[in-house]
């Protein structure tokens, strides 16, 4: 195998892992995918170490004239949740291994996956609003609180999308989302005496709860990836703290200026 092919294969495997890691995949899944991609081309030695913020890969083939190990490092600075891309890379890796796709064609396919557009904002907002509204029902909300949670969640979603689009700091973004939920709950509580702000807030913040991060933290820890598990758990804790900070800050101001009569 030529030296240029070694580099191309390493770039392909690194690209696949980057797409998965940036879109919510578990650490062990990223490592397994990279190893399968590299070994499918005959490399006898493949070692991968993945954390939520970086990918480290080393490959070697003892049958080559040059036997030094080739290593790459990729820094991951941003993460989001798009499990559709994770599933697409999983499907690609199976095809790459079974159908003997060339490296150049594989990189093209990965670029297409990476460029897949997410669902439009209004789809996220509407269905996120429905999910939040039904969560409010689980906590005993009435029909007015159901509708209020729906409206509030839509506004929270648009607020988060806008702040993420301008690369606003993650902590402040989630705190802002919690603040918007609290402000809308207070405003809507004036419209009808049966609307309680606690039901609205509980429902509205559900679109921000780091469920995937918490799940991945547990799965990584069970799989033995303790560094990744702790890192993801810390990330989930920071997100939850920022949401609580945003909600608590607005409610505290409300208590100070209105006496907390509607709390």
Automatic annotation (TrEMBL):
The keyword Oxidoreductase does not apply. The chain crosses the membrane at residues 125-151, 171-191, 200-218, 238-257. Coiled coil: none annotated. Residues 12-253 form the Threonine/serine exporter-like N-terminal domain. It is found in: Cell membrane. It is a multi-pass membrane protein. Its main location: membrane. One of its GO terms (molecular function) is transmembrane transporter activity. Keywords: Cell membrane, Membrane, Transmembrane, Transmembrane helix. One of its GO terms (biological process) is succinate transport. It comes from the Bacteria. GO terms for cellular component: plasma membrane. Belongs to the ThrE exporter (TC 2.A.79) family. This is Uncharacterized membrane protein YjjP, DUF1212 family. The lineage of its organism: Bacteria, Bacillati, Bacillota, Clostridia, Peptostreptococcales.
